[in-house]
Design a protein that fits this description.
This protein folds into two domains: 127 residues, Response regulator (Rossmann fold, 3-Layer(aba) Sandwich); 206 residues, no CATH class. The two termini are 34 Å apart. Helix 1 crosses helix 2 and helix 3 packs parallel to helix 4. 23% of the residues lie in helices and 27% in strands. An eight-stranded antiparallel beta sheet has the order 14-13-10-6-5-18-19-20. By secondary structure, it is of the alpha+beta class.
């Protein structure tokens, strides 16, 4: 259902206040051909109302001829910032960048963050943004979960469907996504609400089993039959199942990159306002699937790059897979049990 400009301006103001926007700070709104016009116009209005100096940087899209999907996360190659030193300089000179284009998994984004610039990604439809406006409670819950991962040296995921997946931890940092950027050099995504880390390189092993109703992204589909991944030394070596598995195998093979099969981030959803069922209510080009990534109690794992956490692995292929009804254990202690988060 459409939302009013007034409601979305108020939502932006709340997010910008949480992101510690102060009068006189410089905001750059980064846009491209796929940017939602209402999201852009209300962001600019909210920032100006709060006394910010607002610029807009609009860049042409790239990689359209390479990607098999219109989804912004379907091909993580070069970005409109690649080699664009003038644009990079403008973003580095900003206190806050509102990314309405999608720079995720790009070296340019990491370079900009290193200067202390804060970057907030917001590309979901306005009504999804409005339903999942972040708050301090989201931050507290995600940070508490992050602290539990930071203290652990192993994550073990099991399920009644047959999941038995082991991930040694400690090499990579823990990443908290709660929907706003309240520290210098911080990146986040509105909407979100989950915690993640990456297994130690070349160590993850076991069986990942998906059941009916689990989700593939960027395919944005609920699978219709079980699927099994064999993981050895940090890489998926076999993908077995029916038509869904065959479609995923062909999609991944099209990248011709062995790094596409590496285990990337692992973690779980903590956002009660995100819903597993929402993906089925949207056209595939209308959303990037943040409800699926963030809904409370999922086990979210991915395949592909780890450069967002300081690793050296880059690949254009990135698959996110939210799985229901899993038990997640840290050093043998349940933190999620059969899809229910165990926290205070």
């Amino acid at each position: 259902m459409p939302v009013s400009d007034h409601a979305l301006v108020l939502a932006w103001q709340q997010v910008l206040e949480l992101s510690r926007l102060e009068p006189g700070q410089t905001i750059t709104v980064l846009t491209s051909a796929s940017t939602h016009p209402q999201t852009m116009s209300t962001a600019i209005t909210a920032a100006q109302t709060m006394g910010a100096i607002v610029n807009r940087l609009d860049l042409p899209p790239v990689n359209g001829e390479k990607a098999l999907s219109r989804d912004a996360l379907a091909y993580l190659g070069t970005t409109p910032l690649t080699g664009n030193h003038a644009a990079i300089a403008m973003l580095k000179a900003s206190d806050l960048v509102l990314d309405l284009m999608t720079l995720l998994f790009s070296p340019e984004q990491m370079e900009i963050l290193e200067t202390g610039t804060r970057i907030l990604l917001a590309v979901e439809p306005p009504e999804i943004l409005l339903r999942m406006v972040p708050n301090e409670g989201d931050r507290a819950r995600v940070k508490a979960a992050a602290a539990r991962i930071e203290a652990a040296r192993s994550m073990h995921i099991v399920s009644d469907a047959g999941m038995d997946f082991h991930c040694p931890l400690g090499q990579f940092p823990v990443i908290s996504e709660y929907g706003f950027v309240d520290e210098p050099g911080r990146w986040d995504h509105w909407p979100s609400g989950f915690v993640l880390t990456f297994p130690d390189d070349n160590t993850a092993h076991g069986r990942i089993v998906l059941d009916k109703g689990d989700i593939l992204l960027p395919q944005k589909c609920y699978i219709a039959e079980p699927m099994e991944f064999t993981v050895e030394a940090g890489y998926v070596t076999h993908i077995e199942g029916g038509v869904d598995a065959a479609l995923l195998r062909e999609y991944m093979e099209s990248f011709e990159d062995p790094e596409a099969y590496a285990i990337s981030h692992i973690g779980w959803g903590l956002q009660p306002r995100a819903k597993w069922s929402t993906l089925g209510l949207y056209d595939k080009e209308a959303t990037i699937g943040m409800d699926a990534r963030a809904f409370e109690g999922n086990f979210l794992f991915s395949l592909g790059p780890n450069n967002e956490a300081g690793g050296s692995r880059t690949t254009a292929c990135h698959i996110d897979i939210p799985v229901r009804h899993c038990t997640v254990r840290l050093d043998g202690v349940d933190v999620v049990r059969r899809g229910k988060v165990l926290d205070d």
